Amino acid sequence: MVLVALDLDGTALDSNGRLSQSVAEAIRQRAKSKKYIFAFCSGRPLSGVLPQAQAVGIAENYHVLANGALVQNGAGDRLVEELLDFSAYQELTNYCCENGLTCIAVNDRGAITAFPSINLGTLEFCFLTNNLLRFCPISESEPTEKYSKLLICDNPDIIKQNKSRVEQRFSKHYTCVEGYPTMIEFGKKNVSKGSSLAKLAAYYGLSDSEVFVVGDNDNDLSSFERFSQSIAMGNATSELKQAANWHCPTNDEDGVVTALKMIDNFIT
């Protein structure tokens, strides 16, 4: 038995955010076999992953969510929970206020922001994750709240201009990744897709050699560094391609279908 961890955006989903029939069927067929366990390994929270998991028949499986902050199944049961405190949200909100940026926080109740204006990055996040955005001034927020992730959201050019400065300011205390061109995502320090995927593999009693990872972006790098049986999409970043053992076609060419055929060769 092997665990196959698939990223969603840019990997299982095409550039329009759709799960093609070919990719869906390739996952669905193998998920019925006792040889495979599938997990989506995404920056999205459960609300953004569950529809895709339901579509391929793996909703009951555990999935690595919010860049590793949660390992959770469709019923809401959790194996891993590494959440940020209110103080982190307050710190990031203060920084954004001082620097003309916008941030949002994400937890089980959805997405929340202390900023009344809406930008492209905020809209994209809510669309991708099936979330409504709730406005609440920081002074009225509940200090006992915890969050799976925090994000700075804006237009791609604003994110690009601020990325290095933001990382320099926060990377000592938080995990900072750019999952999308419109977002810089923050998680608990030393928590990543790779660290939580390792815990999921241990839960299933699987060794590193029984785990395969497929991805396209730098937030998949921790998984590629943790597990050597890694496959980079044709549209992957150059850094991820360098870290990968193998490569497959792009997400718009149903590259995951090819990746799964490659994995078939290892287990048959």
Automatic annotation (TrEMBL):
Instruction: Fetch the InterPro entries from UniProt.
Output: Cof, HAD-like_sf, HAD-SF_hydro_IIB, HAD_sf
GO-annotated molecular function: magnesium ion binding; phosphatase activity
**Cellular component per GO, a single term:** cytosol
- Coiled-coil spans are none
Q: Which domain of life is it from?
A: Bacteria
- Show the PANTHER family listed in the entry: HAD SUPERFAMILY HYDROLASE-LIKE, TYPE 3, PHOSPHOSERINE PHOSPHATASE
Q: What is this protein called?
A: Cof-like hydrolase
Per the UniProt record, the source organism is: Enterococcus avium ATCC 14025
